[in-house]
Known about the structure:
Layout: E1 8-13, H1 23-40, E2 44-47, H2 61-70, E3 76-83, H3 89-102, E4 107-112, H4 119-125, H5 136-146, E5 168-172, H6 176-184, E6 188-190, H7 199-209, E7 221-229, H8 233-239, H9 241-252, H10 271-280, E8 285-287, H11 289-303, E9 307-311, H12 317-332
Parallel strand pairs: 1-2, 1-9, 2-3, 3-4, 4-5, 5-6, 6-7, 7-8, 7-9
Helix pairs in contact: 1-12, 3-5, 6-7, 9-10, 11-12
Organism: Acinetobacter venetianus (strain ATCC 31012 / DSM 23050 / BCRC 14357 / CCUG 45561 / CIP 110063 / KCTC 2702 / LMG 19082 / RAG-1)
Family: To bacterial alkanal monooxygenase alpha and beta chains.
GO molecular function, one term: oxidoreductase activity, acting on paired donors, with incorporation or reduction of molecular oxygen
Amino acid sequence: MKSLQDLKFSILELAPVRDDKSIEFSLRHALELAQHAEKLGYERFWLAEHHNMDGIASSATAVLLGFIAAHTQNIRLGSGGIMLPNHAPLVVAEQFGTLATLYPNRFELGLGRAPGTDPLTMRALRRGRQETEDQFPQDVMEILQYFKAPQANQRIIATPGQNTHVPVWLLGSSLFSAQLAAKLGLPYAFASHFAPRMLGQAIQLYRDNFQASEYLDKPYVSMGIPSVVAKTDEEAQYLATSSYQRILNLIRGHSLKLKPPIESTEGLATSAEQMAIQNFYAMAQIGSQQTVKTGLEKIAAQYDVDEFIFTCDIYDTDKRLENFSLLMDIKNT
Length: 333
């Protein structure tokens, strides 16, 4: 069994928008967090693509990644993920091929199979295109080829993109991407930060069916974990009420802007909503360093993954930065 010191710690950033701040504030805070993560020694810093959500500012994922790359030195950057049904594979390859050309050996591309948005927004993103999730394997294969040396008589070549060999990950919250990642020999990241129900089954399926490839010789698994770490359990539970309110608003279709913490969440949600929040946040680690360390060690023992990638919806930006400092202290002690 791996110890926490053996695991890699990374960050998945959604550039949350606070209810009292501008979108520009969120984008600049994303950079501040990336710089903080780099100093602390986090392995990678990923941004997630979401659209038509007023509380998430990372919709133009490749553009924001370019901004962050220009103001950091060595931390690995990537997408967690690019929602492939929303894009032509060639465009994705050109975008990440450009980033990889400008910032060699720093970029990776995490690909998701779902659109990650509502049906109306999905139609706006795919205007004139009839993409479906069923095309995901074909699109992944196409992108992998764009990053390699062009084959003889290959008529469409990603420029930039060719010969950049950008590492590709598959992301998922079900069994489909686990099976495809195993078949292609790609690293796999499970979205347990919001949909942990099939985590164990997906990881086992991936490991059991993994085929060594030019990309990986053995399985590599990352799992998403929501985190709220503070000096005391009480403070962490208080700070986590911002996350609670955000998930409740997601369930209800309300604004996703981060709201300040509140003294109590009692009476805010129905019993059905409370159950949905608990299911959403089942892997969340909330508490003092000792509490969270115990929780992470339990997860590491149960799932034996290679990497934790942490999300955080703390309202106060200084407390949010502190969350990731405290997490890295847990890993290093």
